[in-house]
Amino acid sequence: MPLAFSPVRLFGALLLLLPLIGCGGQAQRPSFGGSAQVEAPPPLPQIARTRVGLLLPLTGANRSLGSAMFNAAQLALFDQADPRVEFLPQDTAGTPSGAAEATRLALGAGARVLAGPLTGAEAAAAALPARAGRLPMLAFTNDDTAAGNGVWVLGVTPSQQVGRMVGAAAAAGAQRFAMLGQDDAFGRRMAQQLRARLASAGLPPPFVLLHPPRIDMAQAVRDIANLAGEAPVDALLLVETGLAARNAAIAIPAVFPKPPRILGTALWALDTTLAQEPALAGAWFPGADPQARQGFESRYQAAFGERPPRLAGVAYDAAGLAARAARDGGGALPVGEAFLGADGPLRLLADGQVARGLAVFALDPSGEPKLVEPAPVPGAAGS
């Protein structure tokens, strides 16, 4: 039998403790005359609850993250304070086959909505039984190729990151863009989104260079400059992290007559070493709304005694949206409605995409990124 979590049990436990609160000294026993009988209180009314399946890696390599995600989901349910929703955690073991089996178990247990699983491969496997059972699924992955036909992707996707960076840089006057990144699935997806965003904005196509994993970054910067030729580059999207990003930034001033504005990815929020590189000072990257994230982390730490990992916020968002769907429509997700999540505002779109409001930060030598633009409330598709 699956483990179920419901705030009803928590509220019931609190009610049992109420008579003990505030009692000082020896408790006074009530006296009754004769053989008077004390009537038992009437039973509490039964509350019909709608079940939400949580697809989490509770065993395997990602079990620690799965545990934190379960905590974040409980926090989302507690924040909504609705006893009509019940969570059914199911273990995916962090594998596609495990995710598919967890989905079938949640379906058999009467779940009306699914939150999870973690990765793109797991989401693809879980989507098959979810769609067969007509269960909407809010996956934690950032692989937006899995979205659509009843599946929403809650992770921060390449489309969201590129859209925010292009919008912010274009508003600051950038017209010509370039991109330097590794030739992998993430790099190719970022390049695809950059081309699409610039085309929709009526801007020239970007200069894109995708390189193999091991390369001299100074040479890669020279290659992208040669690709641009005489055309000025106003903004360079650096789809790199760690040492590769730092080495590329060092090479840029020596190669470009007028160094472009450097743009990064959401992964930069996790890399504290980047701020230590003077060549990256002032570089922009997208990130979570600081006020929303701080509020989520404070509530999580108060409840569980530790700071949540970054990805726990996605579980909070998915669980909160799933709980709202279970509460309001028995499974109908609030498509088109704005929702304030752990990392800021977001909005589910009809095609399975998610419009997410991201803030823009600048790297600062102090180590604390500076807020350049706050996170907007996303609107329609393409936000």
Folded structure, characterized:
This protein has a domain at 158-287: Response regulator (Rossmann fold, 3-Layer(aba) Sandwich). 38% of the residues lie in helices and 18% in strands. The chain has helices spanning 7-17, 63-80, 96-108, 120-132, 158-171, 185-200, 217-228, 242-255, 290-304, 312-329, and strands at residues 50-56, 85-91, 111-115, 137-139, 151-153, 177-182, 207-211, 235-239, 261-263, 284-287, 338-341, 344-348, 354-356, 359-362, 370-373. Strand 1, helix 2 and strand 2 form a beta-alpha-beta unit. Helix 2 crosses helix 10 and helix 3 runs parallel beside helix 4. It is elongated and about 85 Å long.
CATH architecture of the domain at 158-287: 3-Layer(aba) Sandwich
How large is the share of residues in beta strands? 15-25%
The helical percent reads 25-40%
- Write the CATH fold name of the domain at 158-287: Rossmann fold
Number of helices: 10
Ranges where pLDDT stays below 50 over 5 or more residues in a row are 5-36
Name the CATH superfamily assignment of the domain at 158-287: Response regulator
**Overall radius of gyration:** 25 Å
CATH first level of the domain at 158-287: Alpha Beta
Number of strands: 15
Strand order of the largest sheet: 2-1-3-4-5
Shape call: elongated
Order of helices and strands: HEHEHEHEEHEHEHEHEEHHEEEEE
The major sheet is characterized as: 5 strands, parallel
Determine the mean pLDDT: 87
Structural class comes to: alpha/beta
- How far is the first residue's CA from the last residue's CA? 42 Å
